[in-house]
Amino acid sequence: LLAFLAACTVLFFARALEGRGTPALVGWAVASSLALATHYFAILLVVPEAVWLVARSRARVPALLASAVPAAVLLLHVPLLLDQRDIGQAVAESGLSGRIAGVPKALVVGYSFPWEIAGSIAAAVLVTAGLVLLARAPADLRRRGLVAGGLAAVPLVLPILLALGGSDYVIARNAILAIVPGAICLAAGYATSRLGLAAAGALCVLGLAITLSASLVDGYGRTDWRGAAERLGPA
């Protein structure tokens, strides 16, 4: 649900920047409010979008009014947020460096699948190709891609900074907000050439293969507890 609502905020954010008026801002305000009511970490996407809308929108006053709606929703959640603030830090029981390295890998190819090392390396090469192509893209396309990339960077980088300050929430599911704007950023690079389109197609095929393999192979689709059940014996 968080991933879906985050994607909706990105959609209406883009429409608002294109100057589509009040409907786009209303859609963004509603989607952002629902995202914040779903997961506190939605703030890592909603706030950068709000700041950018206010700074760059042609209608600054409506953008400010739209931003006030999710701000009010967040304010109403503050008592609950403070009461629950320590629950998510159970992730800190594992090493921070390993989790930092694992977040982008998990967002691109998932947690575990057959031929994991080879698939992860292939995905890293294809993602790097998209970023290199983005750096060489025409100025307008590059600017648009970097806006999306900036939105993706906040949910990835800010939790790391918080963890270094003592509030550790670094885990892939908290960074799921970065997937859609990150994909848009890569797409801007892939769209610049036939080579980029081929790389995009290869990344899609790789993702589909990983999804199918993890679903079809019993050891990856779900944890097999049958051996443990046999040792426990009858209830």
Question: How would you summarize the topology of this molecule?
Answer:
Layout: H1 2-17, H2 22-38, H3 43-56, H4 60-84, H5 96-109, H6 116-135, H7 139-164, H8 179-190, H9 194-216, H10 218-221, H11 226-232
Helix pairs in contact: 1-2, 1-3, 2-4, 3-4, 3-7, 6-8, 6-9, 7-8, 8-9
**Sheet/helix structural class:** mainly alpha
Mean pLDDT across all residues, rounded? Answer: 91
Please work out how many helical segments DSSP would assign: 11
Radius of gyration: 20 Å
**Percentage of residues in strands:** under 5%
**Which overall shape is indicated by the principal axes computed on the Cα atoms?**
globular
Strand segment tally: 0
Architecture overview:
- It is built from eleven helices and no strands.
- It is mainly α.
- The model has no long low-confidence stretch (mean pLDDT 91).
List keywords for this structure.
mainly alpha, globular, 11 helices, 235 residues
Summarize, please.
The protein has helices at 2-17, 22-38, 43-56, 60-84, 96-109, 116-135, 139-164, 179-190, 194-216, 218-221, 226-232. It is mainly alpha-helical.
